[in-house]
Design a protein that fits this description.
By secondary structure, the protein is α+β, with helices and mostly antiparallel strands. The protein is built from 12 helices and 16 strands. It folds into 2 domains: 166 residues, ATPase, nucleotide binding domain (Nucleotidyltransferase, domain 5, 2-Layer Sandwich); 148 residues, Nucleotidyltransferase, domain 5 (2-Layer Sandwich). This is Actin-like protein N-terminal domain-containing protein.
Length: 377
């Protein structure tokens, strides 16, 4: 019998986040970087014992005529996170790498040879809103072709895409809200729900009117992402790139200075952060004023960036009389922890990390556990 992989992926700009099923729920995290590997580089990496590492730490795939490192290996190969590119441009590489890691971890290995492996896939994907509108059919066709034969760390894999469920980023939170309301006998299709996704690349608003899917008249993904904060910081810090993972970590840890490797003097990060925060908040405020509906709505706030400016957002919602209608993504955290509790070697994630996982968890929960999920129509 052909093995089955049930996998739900959020290809976020700050990380690729995945829930999958292997006897119980498991999670997987890959850094967002991708790097193309030339044959000579790949030969040197293989000779250096690359495949003796954990698959998520040394992930590379070969599809068509190209070989690509993904995640930690891509960082080591000076890859980038592709912030300037649509996510669809690297989606196939990230999805195949994720499936390769899961196959390596869960499917039987034949004496570590390269004899190949066949499996069926039930795949759930979260896509940026505009790419969901425009590109999901093309991406499905690309995946059906690429998954049929590719290799992961030199091992040939052959997958069959048996089911694919694509939803816009933020829909996982909406679907989880629908399951929650259903427990109280309330249909989410009787309400208008707005999901605000404060992402790394952009800020999105998805309006589900009485269960309908978001439309271009009431929804957009063109709001300012947290990368605007990083770009503004970088303008104050000579020689620092906005997609430098060390810069993001320093900001999240509230460091006062930033050290560039090879330079003695530390840069003043605290002052740069003050300017960047003011700039980012001004753009967020303008976006919310323009796009938030004035009518009676339920609002779900998701995305890690929302928690970075949580105090200011609470003030904004309070001023608009929305406080009682706001639900934060962290409300899913307790049940996420219950689902994952007992997973060997998994420490309980902090608040921001769990919030970043909430959207894909909602997708996972809906289609793994619900026989008849409350899908937007």
């Amino acid at each position: 019998m052909t093995a089955k992989l049930q996998t739900y992926i959020d290809m976020g700009s700050s990380a690729t986040k995945c829930f999958y099923w292997h006897r119980k729920p498991e999670l997987l995290h890959l850094a967002p970087q991708v790097a193309r590997l030339n044959p000579s580089r790949l030969d040197r990496l293989t000779l250096g014992g690359l495949t003796s590492q954990e698959p998520e730490d040394s992930a590379y795939i070969t599809v068509g005529n190209g070989t690509y490192a993904v995640g930690a290996l891509a960082i080591a190969q000076k890859g980038d996170s592709g912030l300037a590119l649509p996510k669809r441009d690297r989606a196939v590489y990230k999805i195949l790498a994720t499936l390769g890691v899961i196959a390596d971890k869960t499917l039987s290995r034949h004496d570590s040879d390269n004899s190949g492996c066949e499996f069926g896939v039930h795949l759930g994907l979260l896509l940026p809103l505009e790419e969901y509108w425009q590109d999901r059919k093309e991406l499905k066709a690309q995946m059906q072709g690429a998954i049929s034969e590719f290799s992961f760390r030199g091992k040939v894999l052959s997958g069959q895409l048996e089911r694919i469920e694509m939803q816009p980023e933020g829909a996982g939170l909406y679907l989880a809200k629908g399951l929650q309301l259903a427990k109280s006998g309330i249909s989410i299709r009787d309400r208008t729900v707005v999901v605000l996704m404060f992402g790394h690349r952009n800020l999105s608003i998805l309006t589900f009117e009485k269960g309908s899917t978001p439309q271009e008249t009431n929804s957009t993904s063109r709001g300012p992402g947290f990368v605007e904060y990083l770009k503004q910081c970088a303008t104050e810090l000579p020689g620092v790139a906005p997609d430098d993972p060390a810069l993001l970590e320093a900001i999240l840890q509230n460091h006062e200075t930033f050290q560039i490797p090879g330079r003695q003097e530390a840069l003043d990060l605290s002052q740069a952060s003050i300017y960047a925060r003011e700039f980012y908040l001004e753009r967020v405020n303008q976006f919310l004023v323009e796009w938030l509906p004035a009518s009676e709505v339920d609002v779900i706030v998701g995305g890690g960036a929302a928690y970075f400016i949580r105090a200011e957002l609470k003030q904004f919602f309070d001023q608009r009389g929305l406080t009682q209608q706001i639900a934060w993504a962290e409300t899913l955290r307790p049940e996420m922890m219950d689902v994952l509790r007992g997973q060997e070697g998994t420490a309980e994630p902090d608040l921001i990390t769990s919030v970043r996982w909430a959207d894909v968890y909602g997708l996972f929960k809906t289609f793994m556990y619900s026989a008849a999920p409350a899908q937007p129509r």
